[in-house]
Design brief:
It comes from Actinomadura bangladeshensis. GO terms for molecular function: DNA binding; DNA-binding transcription factor activity. This is GntR family transcriptional regulator. Keywords: DNA-binding, Transcription, Transcription regulation. The chain has helices spanning 2-21, 33-40, 44-56, 75-99, 102-118, 124-142, 145-157, 159-167, 171-188, 192-241; strands spanning 60-63, 67-70. The chain has 242 residues and is mainly alpha-helical. It has two domains: 8-70, Winged helix-like DNA-binding domain superfamily/Winged helix DNA-binding domain (Arc Repressor Mutant, subunit A); 75-222, Four Helix Bundle (Hemerythrin (Met), subunit A) (Up-down Bundle). A two-stranded antiparallel ribbon has the order 1-2. A hairpin with a 3-residue loop joins strand 1 and strand 2. Helix 4 packs across helix 6 (124-142), helix 4 runs antiparallel to helix 7 (145-157) and helix 5 packs antiparallel against helix 9. The termini are far apart.
């Protein structure tokens, strides 16, 4: 049974994660276990395990007296997180340039090459996985446990925004250029100042794209809510007229 259950959880987790990143659920929407069981055709046990994992990734928030909801970030919250992320990734890049091993430098280069080669065809999950691998190497090479724990927490909280940024038109090629610049400065030349600047530049561009996409998505969601409310107001009158 364990051999069957583990892959099932992984499959549901992947589909559920993609549904959140693709805005199948609205930010702040309450996630009702019974409905999720019907939607994904699995037991409550599987749904609860998946919700715990998504909470650890920052995509789901557990609220007192409400239960799990889709994480909702305001533009103010997102901007604040990106500001801290930029500072920490800049420091991580500088430390990587000074401390990373030859193996870590080579691994970073391979990830950047793979992203450049496959980002156009890869789906969002694969692109995020490659970016995660890039950051795993960058953080490990900085050899700083405080950066490690803090930056991973920030990445989890902005996971949805990272998805928005990577899906934006034209962002893929720009990301390739920015990751290549980070690799060149930090891994090839070992230039701490240039590595810091390249990392900060990457985060600034990602933040600008994510905030723009977030505003567009929120505008679209407001319009959809207004249309539903108008439809609901019309339906009772239509019923009485019949």
């Amino acid at each position: 049974m364990r051999r069957v259950a583990a892959p099932l959880r992984a499959q549901v987790l992947e589909v559920f994660r993609q549904d959140i990143l693709a805005a199948e659920f609205e930010p702040g929407e309450r996630l009702v276990e019974a409905r999720l069981c019907d939607r994904y055709e699995v037991s409550r046990t599987v749904i609860r395990e998946v919700l715990r994992q998504l909470e650890s990734e920052g995509l789901v928030t557990m609220l007192p007296n409400r239960g799990p909801v889709v994480t909702e970030l305001t533009a103010f919250d997102a901007r604040a997180l990106f500001e801290v992320r930029g500072a920490l990734e800049g420091l991580a890049g500088a430390l990587f340039a000074e401390r990373a091993t030859a193996e870590q430098r080579e691994r970073m280069g391979r990830v950047v090459q793979r992203f450049a080669r496959t980002h156009r065809e890869a789906d969002l999950a694969d692109r995020l996985a490659m970016k995660d691998e890039f950051y795993d190497i960058l953080i490990a090479g900085s050899v700083n446990p405080v950066i490690d724990s803090t930056l991973r927490g920030i990445h989890a909280r902005v996971q949805m925004l990272r998805g928005l940024s990577l899906q934006a038109e034209g962002r893929g090629p720009e990301t390739v250029k920015e990751l290549t610049a980070i690799h060149d400065a930090a891994a090839v030349r070992g230039d701490a100042d240039a590595a810091r600047a390249a990392c900060e530049h990457h985060v600034r561009n990602a933040a600008a794209t994510a905030l723009r996409e977030l505003a567009a998505r929120q505008h679209e969601q407001r319009e959809q809510r207004e249309q539903r409310e108008q439809q609901e107001r019309r339906e009772p009158r239509t019923g009485r007229a019949g």
